[in-house]
Amino acid sequence: MPEPLDAALAQVRALLLDPALTRAVAAGRRRGRRPTVVRAELRPVTLKAGPRLQIATSDGARPYTRNVTPGPETAAAVDELLAEPFGNWHVETADATLQLRVTKSGEAQVHRGAAPARPVATPGGNDRAKEYLLDPGDEIFAEIGGSAAKRRQVDAFLRALAATLPDELTGPLRVVDLGCGNAYLTFAAYRYLSGRGLDVELIGVDVREDQRRRNTELAQRLGWADRVSFVAGTIADAVVDPAPDLVLALHACDTATDEALARAVRWEARWVLAAPCCHHDLAKQLRAHPAPAPYELLTRQGILRERFADVLTDALRAGLLRVHGYRAEVVEFVDSQHTPRNLLIRARRTGTGSTGPQRAEYRELVDQWRVTPRLETLLAADEPPAA
């Protein structure tokens, strides 16, 4: 339920001045107002001169860091930040977590939870505990469950997401997860992005109505139903409006990945993260005719043909994204010991057209292998017929 903004900010202030504070982030802006800085992060530090509160801010061009002493100086610095019209606050202490979002009407949506468990380093040793972007002890795992391997996969995905988005990202962020399934990564993405102080709205799409109901109920239990929602429908046809800034498609099988990439291009999404799963379409096309010389050895053995089809499919997907105005790269998503489907197509819209050499290298490759990628077919259907 919405709360009065002044009362919610008073709670934030109390936590920021609490000796148990571990981290806080302020970002975003309220409707019709703009803070003097785009982001602020607070955390306690210990210097030679003693304990300090470190405040790191950015004006969107350059960062600025200062360390303030406990007492009146810290209180004044905190009050100065609370007076800024930030749209979001995320505060963690050793005992609690508080997330505050200012609504369009100027009220506060507040979510309170237990503090995430944090890995403990071995005293006096050189080994450091692994730092997770979303701690394995975070409260959401109590709701969504998951094995240790699944949590490692979540962390790998979040690291790829962090590497994709700019550090100084501001403003509302609309995210769509196509083929979200049980929404493991959907909820993890929201938890991480909102923890960065971003004003996030996330929609999960899955073809199964029972999954939609299950995921919607889980969002309600987590207190996120106003920011995380789900629709039942296919990747190609589910109603999503307005268009998203960020498109996720993780382990959508075979040409479902192509449908997700095609929608991202149609939406002109700013960022795309797609982890392909299965590559049957081009593998079938490769079986239909001999390989061009001198590459017969690449496809003569079945297992090699299947693996080559995987590589060719994702190379052509990345190439097509470049042709349609994206900077695309294929990277390792998670270590292959956890899953063999461990590649990630990561793309950022550049806003510039493709070059002649980019179009030529793509066309030469598909012509040589006599294949027609499904993504090419889907995107060609959007283009007007030649005059």
UniProtKB/TrEMBL annotation:
Gene3D superfamilies: Vaccinia Virus protein VP39. Residues 107-126 are annotated as: Disordered. CDD domains: AdoMet_MTases. GO terms for cellular component: cytoplasm. InterPro entries: Methyltranfer_dom, SAM-dependent_MTases_sf. Signal peptide: none annotated. The keyword 4Fe-4S does not apply. Residues 150-285 form the Methyltransferase domain. One of its GO terms (biological process) is methylation. SUPFAM superfamilies: S-adenosyl-L-methionine-dependent methyltransferases. Pfam families: Methyltransf_32 (PF13679). Keywords: Methyltransferase, Transferase. One of its GO terms (molecular function) is methyltransferase activity. The keyword Transferase applies. This is Methyltransferase domain-containing protein.
